[in-house]
Design goal:
heterodimer, A: alpha/beta, Rossmann fold, 21 helices, 15 strands, B: Rossmann fold, photosynthesis (chain A), iron (chain A), 4 iron, 4 sulfur cluster binding (chain A), metal ion binding (chain A), ATP-binding (chain A)
Chain lengths: ~525, ~475
Amino acid sequence: TKPAHRMHAGPAHIGTPRVASPSKNAHAIMHAPPGDDHSNVMRSMPERDRDFTPVTASMVDRHVLARGSQDKVVDNTNRKGKEERPDPIAPTPTCTSSILQEDPQNLVRRASITSDSDAIPADVNHHRVDEPQAADGTSEQVVRHHPNKARGQGTLGRSLANIPSANTIGIPTLGSHNQHDCRESKRSSRDIGTRINQIIPEGGFVGNLNNLPKARFNFVPHREVGLMTAVYLDEEFGMPCISMTPAGIIDTAECIRQMQERVGKWASAPPKEKVDHEPYIDQHTRSVPQAAWSSRSIDRQNSTGKRAVIPGDATHATAMTKIPSREMGIRACRAGTYCKHDAERSNEQVRGSRDEILVTDDHTEAGDTIGRVEPPAISGTQMERHVGKRLDTPRGVTSPPVHIQNFPSGYRPSSGYEGTNQIADSVHNPHTLGTEDHLLDILGGHDTEAVTESSPIEQDMLIRSPESQLGSSQIPRSVRGKTKGKTEKSARQNGITNITVEVMYAAREILGYS
Amino acid sequence: MKRFETLTLERETGNYHTSRPISCVARSHQKIEDSSPLVVGTKTCGYSPQNAPGAMIYAEPRYAMAESEEGDIPAQPNDHGESKRLCPRVIGNRDPSVIARTGTRTTEAIKMDLEGMAPKPESEIGIPIVVARANGPDYAPTQGEDTAPAAMAHRCAERYVGSVDGRDDHQPVQSSLPAATECPPKPVMVPPAGRETNPPPVLPGSLPPMVASQPNSESKRQSVRVWGRLPAQSYTALPSLGAGVYVCGVNPSSSRTATTLMRRRKRRLIGAPPPTGPDGTRAWIEKTRPVSGVQTQGSRERERQVWEGSKDYPDSVRGKPVFLTGDNPLEASPARSPIRCGTIVHEIGIPYMDKRYQAAESAPLRDTCRHMCIPMPRIAEKPDNYDQIQRMRESRPDLAITGTANANPSEARGIDTKRSVESTSAQIHGFTNARGVPRPVTRPLRRNDLGDLGWADLVKRAGDNDPPLAQR
């Protein structure tokens, strides 16, 4: 047993549904006690999905604990097959299954015999992998299953399409701004003349996976999920892969250049296919997004030399360290990822952009470091946002784990050229938060006190009993003023001068909540 | 749709959706402000209390976790060493009055003896360790929440009225704690106040602090003294219990705490529905006061007053069909006041219902239905998620109260929907908060109907398994 506190990456059984649910028509049967289908709650609430999440919990209750699941999972798999005709069904184990030492492969084998749907096991060990690793693993397993099957059936799409196309791999649900990033990447691809063959898993039909090899290359924008799949496709079908996050002006340009190169590499047709995206890159760096210019604009010079602490997952920690450092003059005093298994590469990527490394999945360690270092700003996960609140440090959230605020209605990608604008804003805003007050202080810009204080108009003779004052203090701050006002109004209306707890409650009853 | 003449409870034991007991335990421990919960389980177990409030609101749940690793699966004989190692880290710089060791399905599955492991570290570090088991396979979420105060019930000091009775064998006398605690370390002698004419009840059930003080005020008006609550606001404020002390729940799920108090501590239970809504509050007062030997005065008049004051809400729901799906922390009681307002509740889904403890709620529910000439709702325990959703769509309710995972999909399909979990944070107990029941429940109905905007629903036309409901 080891002490653990809040975790950055969730457990494995959240990772698997992140790949299963966005696939059209897939369904996961989770072998779990009540509450493990929390991914349903996440997808429905923060992500505001309008459909019922295609994850069903095959309940582990006390009978299952005592006797093992026996036929339950298989029966549920078959039942779901009839009810909703999904394809495929993925019986998903959870940590309870490993503790009960159930064999997912066996469950799948039995289910395959009786069910019409394709049953694919999501074989992830909950003690060894966390959420992104499980998502990555599941994605690879699903993808591996289909081309193999197709090859057996002779339906594998091997011939390259004439128009260059690419697969985007690794857009699971519940990612940070993933939907927007996906849209942005589609837009950019269109701009440079590369079609999108398939996107995995978001909105993809698992049945189409046999056509994956038709694309010229695979694009993996987020390392945490998708890399294993791309590696498999490279080994099996020789498909090259671009594993790079197009975030920030420099890396977006680099990404486009790499795409240009991959497309050219596989060009079977004569030179008319030779592409040059440099003019596109040039135009987009100078004028289309505001980021490059705004970072150089005069008032933003105040940010130069500022420091920040930047933790996050592998993708975002890297991006959010490189971009401010290379493009905005803001250097990371501490940066690093909580994805410890990928730390080496992350550290390599950000060399030169940060002073010291902070690789940890212990949020108290991250918090202590921030407390010690006292940076002017923090750019990290929700955990660090809490730390920033506690230490009164300007902070922004730029990395998963996700929160309901990471699903804005507006278009907020963090990659591509529009992403550079969003990032620029999110980096500059915390740095200017303190400046406002600071300048107002220096220039004497605050409004005069007499005007700003809300004046107590009547000199009232109301006496407040100590209990009622204590009661007041228990009212949430946001409604305290209004509630007090209502109580006093009600007291005056009824000619009461002594405000006791009873008077408070009576007012509440009559006038209700604000 | 079948209608029932008597209140029928059907246990479906299907694949039901609900939240994890652990997150409710965390909630319970948060109420006890000087407690330090230590959850023993896997990453999964830690994820829930962290994520559930954290992903939706900006809460920072206060708890620590001992994460079991793969090597822990065959239960180790060295569990004590582990405890000794972990407890100081858990305490850290918080200085808690109690450590609440919370078991999960992990500890259950590997048969970890949490109770057996507690006494030794307790004597070594000098802080009481209380064990609460909250595992999903055995408990519904609210049952899990209930295990925390139930565990604390054993730690309440004895209170003797009159002469010293023999000490209860099960009562571990509080070890003398180092300074700073006001917990009565020894049994408290209280001079007899007549022959128990007014034994004050102890109220099990979690309430927000502001609401917790309100029934006190109401009860004072009606001369019902409240002795204490479980969970109390701090461990040191746990009520002391004595012979003749009654127990009366304020939440339907406090059955375990109540039973513990009844069996182990030999207290008597007042069977009353939870004091939610004007009718529930009146019934609760009517049941608690006679026990104290005082006649009820004017509680019916008070109830009438409150109904009068919130007239606009019942008017907006009268005659409307309502459906409550399975993730309902307050079980059947949120249905009672709406029925009293005239809604037709088709079905109430709950993870678990303790029939005996809840007999006090079933009776008023049945009577209210009869009084309003409304068919009895079907109560489905552990409803199968898929089947229940089909039933919900068939019944075409005007309002659905569902769990969080089904709320948005339901709303998108043109059914005005409310999340049941909001009842746990809403203030709904007592006369003062009478509007707390009808107001949030009717909020979806007071919003613009989708139909007014010209749409039947807002789901994407995939064409396959989700035909939209026709416009009403």
